[in-house]
Design goal:
The strands form 2 sheets. A 7-stranded mixed β-sheet has the order 1-3-4-13-12-9-10, with helices on one face. A 6-stranded antiparallel β-sheet has the order 2-5-6-7-8-11, covered by helices on one side. Helix 1 packs antiparallel against helix 2. It has a single domain, classed as 4-Layer Sandwich (Phosphatase 2c, domain 1). The chain is of the alpha+beta class and 314 residues long.
């Protein structure tokens, strides 16, 4: 793997794409690491990854998608996803964003475009992670207190069933979100299907149970090197390099030490939004950022206690 780079995300920034990358990402309230390797060393692959931060740094959105196809068509879709990410960068609730993603892929469906995706939003005031899954392999969750890994599945939330339809398949598909409470040193790993579908020399597939077993065997003491060590462990187990598909892995953990929002950041937020929105309108750009008019979002901007009132929509 290439040497790791470091990227510090600023407020209202959307970072990512579908190119090869091996980078740590510094965020308010989160530490993240992204690794992506397109199939056959292409300039751009079918896997898309994005990370965004809101105007105050309280809302972090992280997305991993596996798009059908490769090349220019996926690169164009990656641009449209970036625009959608920017438009919803200040929204705590991500359901509307995922629905818009589905609409975008439905428009492209005449070209055979569809995707699986997992979209997560971390809200720092409540240490809450919201997830939407559109037919994607379930993320892995490491609970530091229990010292154990497991898949984030239905047992982690209470309420309606998780919509699990790939993007671009059904126009009126509905996508629900559910919450997982994160604690210090917990880890979340999102990945594309190249990991559980890795082929071994005997022709067998690693599968989900095999992936969990391998991840459990890897030391988590240094999260910054966990992704390459997991990929290496899979390749060692299978006796083959993972070369038949794009590889993308996104790992992140809460970091309370960087979550505190200063008054300078609070006061600068509306001017930042006005400036970025104004420039986008003047240039005729798509994806103009809009605020979410909720008490937790708008009220929590100035009074942290109001931010802690956030509950997922039902």
């Amino acid at each position: 793997m290439a040497d790791e780079e470091e990227h510090s995300l600023v407020c209202m920034e959307v970072w990512g794409g579908n190119q090869a990358v091996n980078s740590s990402v510094r965020l308010a309230g989160l530490d993240a690491w992204v690794y992506s390797k397109p199939y056959e060393q292409a300039d751009g692959g079918g896997d898309v990854y994005y990370v965004s931060s809101c105007a105050t740094g309280r809302i972090t959105r992280l997305l991993v998608a596996d798009v059908s196809g490769h090349g220019n068509a996926v690169s164009e879709l990656a641009v449209s996803l970036r625009q959608l990410m920017r438009q919803h960068v200040n929204h705590i609730d991500q359901v509307k964003f995922v629905r818009r993603m589905n609409e975008q892929f439905v428009l492209q469906s005449t070209f055979g475009s569809f995707a699986t995706a997992v979209v997560t939003t971390y809200f720092a005031p409540t240490c809450s992670l919201s997830l939407c899954n559109a037919g994607h392999p379930p993320p892995l969750l490491y609970r530091a207190k229990e010292k154990s890994w497991r898949y984030i599945e239905h047992a982690d939330y209470v309420g309606e069933d998780l919509a699990d339809v790939p993007l671009g398949i059904v126009d009126l598909a509905d996508y629900q979100q559910f919450n997982v409470q994160l604690e210090r040193d917990d880890l979340v790993m999102c990945y594309t299907d190249s990991l559980p579908e890795a082929r071994c020399r005997d022709g067998s597939c690693l599968d989900m149970a095999g992936l969990l077993k391998i991840v459990e065997s890897v030391d988590i003491a240094d999260p910054a090197t966990l992704i390459p060590r997991v990929v290496h462990a899979i390749e060692s187990h299978c006796g083959n390099l993972i070369t038949g598909d794009d590889i993308t892995v996104l790992l992140f953990r809460p970091n309370p030490a960087t979550a505190r929002m200063t008054w300078r950041t609070r006061l600068a937020a509306p001017f930042r939004i006005i400036g970025i929105t104004g420039r986008a309108l003047i240039r005729g750009e798509k994806g103009v950022p809009t605020p979410e008019w909720s008490l937790a979002n708008i009220g929590g901007w100035m009074l942290p206690a109001l931010g802690r009132l956030y509950r997922r929509p039902r």
